[in-house]
Amino acid sequence: MAEVVLRPMTAADADRVLAIYQAGLDGGQASFETVAPTWAAFDAGRLAAHRLVAVDDAGTLLGWIAVSPTSTRPVYAGVVEHSVYVDPAAQGRGVARLLLDGLIASTEAAGIWTIQSAVFPENTASLALHSRAGFRVVGVRERVARHHGRWRDVTLLERRSPVVD
């Protein structure tokens, strides 16, 4: 297996990031969204300081992770929601865990105390990944929205930093 490293996401990564995003959406277990946003919308909705990509030694972008603020209220400045997507051809190689570990380090260094996510209960690989990375299940939001014409639940996950007070 080629060495995989993390680096900050840049605008030059836009096409590949959005292609991986769309591949995840096409799989039907990643998000209520069905079409990846434009780069401008993606860029506007995610915190620039906490966007990472995983690349192999040939420079191929294999996956990405990014966070969005959960609220504009100052009291929630240390709470973010994240998304992680890996190219289907690179799944099962530890790329998502590498990205998640990098994000945890990045957010903790910035004083962020909680990372949260909402995952479809059927996405057992994502639930297992998050559990291994120290996330806990907060609860299930039942029938929270429609996806391809049917109601779907989401499992709410969070990781509270043990080092950020």
Provide a descriptive summary of the structure in words.
The chain is built from four helices and seven strands. With 165 residues, it is of the alpha+beta class. It starts with a strand and ends in a 5-residue tail after the last strand.
Helix content: 25-40%
- Describe the global form: globular
What is the radius of gyration?
A: 15 Å
Mean pLDDT: 95
- The proportion of residues in beta strands is 25-35%
Pfam families: Acetyltransf_1 (PF00583)
InterPro entries: Acyl_CoA_acyltransferase, GNAT_dom
Keywords: Acyltransferase, Transferase
Organism: Micromonospora gifhornensis
Q: What's the quick description here?
A:
It comes from Micromonospora gifhornensis. With 165 residues, this protein is of the alpha+beta class. It has helices spanning 14-26, 39-45, 95-109, 124-132, and strands at residues 4-8, 51-56, 61-69, 79-86, 114-119, 136-147, 150-160.
